[in-house]
Specification:
Strand order of the largest sheet: 5-2-1-6-7-9-8
Radius of gyration: 15 Å
Distance between the termini: 29 Å
Pfam families: DJ-1_PfpI
Protein name: DJ-1/PfpI domain-containing protein
Number of domains: 1
Order of helices and strands: EHEEEEEHHEHHEEHH
Keywords: Repeat
CATH architecture: 3-Layer(aba) Sandwich
Helix content: 25-40%
Strand content: 15-25%
Structural class: alpha/beta
Shape: globular
Organism: Polarella glacialis
InterPro entries: Class_I_gatase-like (IPR029062), DJ-1 (IPR006287), DJ-1/PfpI (IPR002818), Prot/Nucl_acid_deglycase (IPR050325)
CATH superfamily: Class I glutamine amidotransferase (GATase) domain
Length: 186
């Protein structure tokens, strides 16, 4: 089986719980996860002050194919993601190819809605402003609509990441990963 590659873009003020859950869970499942900064520097200061160092800049990811691109939320981190031309080009190409394109918290509204990437149904952080930006908003921890996966926020991060594992590796791998992490999927 070919290596599964996942791109996780981050910015100043991205949400750290979401970023950690996404990267950790997908790595545990066997994916090669690349964290890319959309900021001028590789080190970003997350929404609650945690500093992380990205593997590369988003520009280094241009022209590469990814099995999944997964955007954490956080504000104004999601706005930084929204305003990155290199990331938006990658997301549009990813979606055009019907490959896993995922976002959580503020990012489905701020990034995906702004750039026409939302499917018929989706979810996001249940703030009225964000909900208004997601026409097919659903009250659910995770919504899968074709190749687009969306989720609500920090507390739904593990289920979101495990749903991405299921989409990339299959239900058995998702359940195995969840069990090893002591996560109840039911």
């Amino acid at each position: 089986m070919a290596e599964i590659t996942v791109l996780v873009p981050v910015a100043d003020d991205s949400e750290e719980i979401e970023t950690a859950c996404i990267t950790d869970t997908l790595t545990r499942a066997g994916a090669k996860v690349v964290v890319a900064s959309v900021m001028p520097n590789l080190q970003v200061k997350m929404s609650r002050g945690l500093k992380i160092v990205a593997d590369c800049s988003i520009e280094d990811c241009a022209g590469k194919e990814w099995d999944a691109i997964v955007c954490p939320g956080g504000m104004p981190g999601a706005e930084h993601l929204r305003d990155s031309p290199a990331l938006i080009e990658l997301l549009k190409e990813q979606s055009k190819r019907s490959k896993v394109t995922a976002a959580m918290c503020a990012s489905p509204a701020v990034v995906f809605s702004t750039h026409g990437l939302l499917p018929e149904t989706a979810t996001c952080y249940p703030n009225p402003k964000f909900k208004a930006m997601v026409p097919g908003w659903q009250e659910a921890q995770v919504v899968v609509d074709g190749h687009i996966i969306t989720s609500q926020g920090p507390g739904t991060s593990l289920h979101f990441a495990l749903k991405i594992v299921e989409k990339l590796f299959g239900k058995e791998k998702s359940e195995e990963t969840a069990k090893a992490m002591l996560v109840d999927l039911h």
